[in-house]
Design a protein that fits this description.
Bacterial Protein-export protein SecB; four-stranded antiparallel sheet; three-stranded antiparallel sheet; 3 helices; 39% strand
């Protein structure tokens, strides 16, 4: 019997969902007051057996974001393992916590690289994404519902 958390997948696509530098919201003299916000969502596409991790970050001062970035990492699951995750009756994915954490870790590394590339040669390149405890972002198995389905080109 195969263990549920042994899921084979590959990263198939990376997208930049949003990126903005809002210079008017940034005050260079208040660098010590910069806060980091994060957001995490999951989606899926049954036809292509894709689970998507959408990870967002924003740097802000006094609740006003000045650097916003959201990326999507599209992971394709092999067919035999997809069938252990996808419930055709409820049209939901039950993603084990260990696999979700692995995918989110890959997304964190990806967003860190995208942040550097998008801000390179700008004054905003000094803002690094610190270590993120993905165990705080993913506390349990993830249930992805049909209305989280993502259309792919």
């Amino acid at each position: 019997m195969e263990k549920q958390n042994q899921i084979s997948f590959g990263l198939r696509r990376i997208t930049t969902e949003q990126f903005a530098i809002i210079e008017s919201s940034y005050d260079k003299s208040k660098d010590e007051a910069v806060e980091l916000g994060t957001g995490l969502r999951f989606g899926f596409n049954t036809e292509k057996r894709i689970i998507t991790v959408l990870l967002a970050i924003n740097f802000s001062q006094e609740k006003a974001p000045f650097l916003v970035l959201e990326i999507g990492c599209y992971f394709q699951i092999i067919e035999e393992h997809w069938n252990t995750l996808y419930n055709a009756e409820t049209k939901e994915i039950n993603l084990p916590k260990s696999i979700a954490i692995h995918m989110v870790m890959l997304a964190v590394g990806t967003i860190r690289g995208v942040l550097h590339a998008k801000t390179e040669n700008t004054p905003f390149n000094k803002f690094f994404l610190p270590t993120i405890n993905v165990y705080e972002l993913v506390k349990d198995d993830i249930l992805i519902k049909t209305n989280d389905a993502i259309e792919l080109e």
